[in-house]
């Protein structure tokens, strides 16, 4: 497929072209850049929703239930599933699981796992561009699934309008992280596996934790979800819609997007610089520099200058 064919295919919402487009942007080369720049004017219509939480909390089960709900309402849904901790194992398995079991034949659903690029880095930029491609492809909703550790390579807040945090009964550490200000306050909290004991306790702990942190005009609702039986999924999506209506009033949406873009641009620029430094500081070059330091011919800061010179950054 030529670049022109990919662009046309994305515009027409063709699955194969969309897949190709994401593979192109994942390579982070000139072709992917050109593609993203060409598609960008066609973006801005999708509602982008982050679904974040610890491994095993029930994110993919929830997403699968959300897809069923949204498809029943006639919406086209795309999912980008990101797991920075594994090159191709967990994220890919989850994406495949959702795809194969429920939505494989549905042209209104597109699911893609973003594999970590390992030492190459660049997952955040690839993910941002994948979301851009899916927005341009005309999906009504783009769900971005991330493993929430509070210090992610992929900052889901910068890519989405609404962030849903999934916590399950027994997630005391999540509550503590909110209290301690270690976790960005989500827009909607889903208490997953609410069929299990401990859900009520978690809800009250969360309400308490949220009352202790300084809040803005939006109070994050807490929704009990039993995704295995589709329970609470409609309610959760209603809260996402309510959040959307909130942002769409009083110019808040633009404020949020501007704040997200500011963070995204800074983070991706730092990421690109980091990759150039990594490429310049290859082991053989570093070994040479270290020899010189140990021979007292240069000092460590001088070695840093040499790395930056080599990366063309000085
Ligand atoms: P993820 O790693 O966050 O995507 O979590 P998964 O969606 O893969 O779910 C992890 C485990 O929790 C799986 O065994 C699910 O079947 C189970 N699970 C998910 N949702 C529910 C739920 O609503 N109730 C119960 N009891 N188990 C659930």
Structure characterization notes:
With 314 residues, the protein is an alpha/beta fold. The protein has 2 domains: 44-250, P-loop containing nucleotide triphosphate hydrolases (Rossmann fold), CATH 3.40.50.300; 266-310, no CATH class. It is 53% helix and 12% strand. The protein has 13 helices and 7 strands. Helix 9 (199-212) links the parallel strand 6 and strand 7. Helix 2 (15-26) crosses helix 3 (30-39) and helix 12 (283-294) packs antiparallel against helix 13 (300-310). The mean pLDDT is 91. The structure holds guanosine-5'-diphosphate.
Sheet with the most strands, sense and barrel status: 7 strands, parallel
The molecules bound to the chains, other than polymers, are:
guanosine-5'-diphosphate
> Count of DSSP helices?
13
Give the CATH class of the largest domain. Answer: Alpha Beta
Distance between the termini: 39 Å
The average pLDDT value, as a whole number, equals 91
Poorly predicted parts: none
Would you list the SSEs in sequence order as H and E? HHHEHEHEHEHEHEHEHHHH
Strand residue percentage: 5-15%
CATH architecture of the largest domain: 3-Layer(aba) Sandwich
Count of individual domains: 2
Helix fraction? Answer: 40-55%
In angstroms, what is the radius of gyration? Answer: 21 Å
Structural class: alpha/beta
